[in-house]
Amino acid sequence: MSRGDQGAAGPDGRFITFEGGEGAGKSTQVALLADRLAALGIAVVRTREPGGSPGAEAIRGLIVTGAVDRWDARTEALLVAAARRDHVERTIRPALARGAWVLCDRFFDSTMAYQGRAGGVDPAAVEWLRAFATDGLTPDLTIILDLPVELGMARAAARAGGHQRFERREPAFHHRLRAAFQEIAATEPGRCRLLDATLAIEPLADAVFRVVADRLHPRPA
Length: 221
Fold this sequence. Notes:
- The structure is a single chain.
- The radius of gyration is 16 Å and the shape is globular.
- It has 8 helices and 5 strands; from the N terminus they run E-H-E-H-H-E-H-H-E-H-H-E-H.
- The longest helix has 25 residues, at 73-97.
- It has a 5-stranded parallel β-sheet with strand order 2-3-1-4-5, with helices on both faces.
- The chain is of the alpha/beta class.
- The two termini are 19 Å apart.
- Residues 5-9 have low confidence and may be disordered.
- The protein has one domain: Rossmann fold.
- Helix 4 (108-117) crosses helix 7.
- It is 52% helix and 13% strand.
């Protein structure tokens, strides 16, 4: 495992994060994986970032709504770090300590991609904020869903609720974002796995589960 502070986790807990650009289908794949793991008798906690705890959800509203230029990238990074700290301490670590499998829609790789590589914040500063907010908590596995920007934006446009702040950013931002996630996957192959998110929902879910089974070996309780 690679969670960092292992003393906070039960012996069977696992931490899996899903990453990718807008419209990649992360929340759908989190839900489908949760169902498969639950069918094996595994305790699962589904969560998301920004958000995942009452305090973090309050901060989420500040981050994802409003005008595109409501915050600059540095302010976003600070808000995300504050939300992440509350999320880790109040939701993720307690679940891992109970031996649950935590499935999280976004985690610190999104900060590096959105505010760092695509937003222009110094990656060293983003990394410092990550360490400060998480005390070194690192996922056991990160699944990065990759698809062309144009397809992702079309999917995002079709979702209920309309575009949020990041979805309304210029195309160049989203191309930098995709490149950032691809770079993260290439840099950390031991933790990350890049999957083709142009696949239909069920074949992609099968691919996700194969990665989880290969890396983390889930067994019936």
